[in-house]
Give the backbone structure.
Amino acid sequence: MIPYNPKSDGDNTQRKGNTMSEKKYELTKDVLTTASGSKVYRIRAVRTFTNGKNTIEAGTYGGYVESEKNLSHDGGAWVYGVARAYENAVVEGNAALRGLVAAKGNAVIGGDIIVSGTGDIDGNISITGNRPIHLNGEILAGEGTLTLNKKHY
């Protein structure tokens, strides 16, 4: 099967600096249009990897991204279900978006952060750490860095 990827060069590697890393997902033909008019494509894992305590098996469908710039092929970062990452937002490291969460603008979600629930992450905001965040209709927006770490006793 040739992966559908409207914004890719068609090979199964991603160039990062002078190194190449194997792609972990592909964009499918399942597309949604966001309220702002961005087209986002459902992702499907093309290799098995881990996201925290979860194993993402090859063939598993995930959430939606506008292009491969929104979800790193490195690390275990993943967008689940109907969560979305688009515009210039990036999900990287071992971070995860779940539920009805949308990362957009220039948001960067990294580290081991898990963002779930219902809400938006927008603007020039960077969220990192190892603590889960549950949104209940909130919008995290603006500029700055939010680092959330679990306390270890």
In short: Residues 123 and 147 are 16 Å apart (CA to CA). The first strand starts at residue 13 and ends at 16. Confidence is low (pLDDT under 50) at residues 1-20. DSSP finds no helices and 15 strands in the chain.
